[in-house]
Each structure stands twice: as C-alpha cells, then as structure tokens.
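A quick aside before the break. I want you to see a complete sequence-to-structure record at least once, exactly as it would be stored in a machine-readable document. Don't worry about memorizing anything.
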Amino acid sequence: MNTALALGLIAGVVAFSYASSVGLRGKALHPDFYGRNVPDRVKTSPHLRAAANKLFAICGIVAAILLLAPLVWLFSDLHRDRTTWELAGLAAYVFVVVVIGGYPLEKVKTL
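That is the input. The structure line, written in tokens, reads:
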C-alpha cells in the first residue's frame, strides 16, 4: 500500500516538474502543450504570454515541492500501516496540491 502511494506521489512530482519545465521554456501556450483553450489575445500579446509561462512555471514548481513532504513522511517509516485518518489527510493534502498545480490552466483563460 505504501509503495503504491509513494509511486503515485512520485508520478505527481514528475508531472508537475514537467509542467514547470514547459513554462520555464516559454512553450506553455503552444498547442501541443496547454494552449488549445487559450484565448487569442493571450497568445498574441508578448506580455500576457510571458505572464502565462511564468504562472505555469511557478505553480508547477510549488506543486512539485509540496508533494515532496508526503514522500518524506511515507519513506520515514515505509513498512508501517497507515491509519484511515492519515490516508484521509493525505488525500486532502494531495487534493490541495493538485488545485495549486492546476490553477494556471484556468487562470490563463482570464488573463
């Protein structure tokens, strides 16, 4: 059980790290990545494009770093069974991290 949780958290760290690298490279609004549902005014304005890429980079980095804390908690005692309350708290924490990581997807539409 703990191994599956750890693998899921590692996958989340990798996914959010990739999203932040796309933002750091300045390609977040490219149609191959996240730019399909972005308004044209955001794609054509250099200032709004830069703001969108920065938002993707910052939120991706923050989400990836926030997912490292539960990994440390899991690996501190990997062979111990987790209680239902610990798993519920972990689920709530991961939900908040996913909301933070997904924030740029909705914010870019309103820039």
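Two observations worth writing down. DSSP finds five helices and no strands in the chain. The radius of gyration is 16 Å. We'll return to this after the break.
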